[in-house]
Model the fold of this input.
Amino acid sequence: MNKSHRDFLKDSIRKTVDFSQTRQSLGIEPPPWQKPCAPGAQKIALVAPGAWRSIPELNLERAIAQRRSRRSFTKEALSLEELSFLLWATQGLRPTSSTYKNFRTVPSAGCRHAVETYIAVIRVAGLEKAIYRYLPLDHALVEVVRHPDLEEQLVQATFGQHFCGASAATFIWTAIPARMEWRYAEASYKVIALDAGHICQNLYLACENIGAGTCAVAAYDQELVDKILGVDGSDEFAIYLAPVGKVSARQSENE
Done:
């Protein structure tokens, strides 16, 4: 065991960073809060927060008490409204009177939000089977790529974890480190990982509210997941996955 790998969990590196030389301190413009879309890309509008019709009121105590890692899903599709709710709950903007326009439903170090959300859609009403990317500033989706064998690719990319291909949709989060490096330089990487944890916990609780379940996945083939998403693996790469699907009432009670 190489104990030096534990250093990633520490914050000792912060004492070695010259913060006067970060790109922020040097007056360089920050990377955009949202990855730009390809020219001509069609944005798919989502159901706006406050316009939910089928999302029940959240009982937070109950959602926390019932939170489980769920790996068995029914064949029922998610509605577009349910997916809209899950996306808003994990990376959506929250109402604010501030002129600062990047406050979201989850915390992020320095409000940098270096995580992008991709959705591998298998069964969502109104959407074709494809990889989509969430645009939090627009509360919309943009299609990225279609894979006819998407379910099989997800299973292969997670080392045979079959529930990843049986989900209605699998959330795949990537990191764009430059967003965080702009402010924190070499101290960025631990906090990006922490940010991903905040996001996934919100997904767990939001799933419990709509009769769905999820299970966080950190064991995956890095190069294959990056290839499926079409990201370069250097300036942007996958860091976390979470398949989501409906669960039966009996399963929800017994797990």
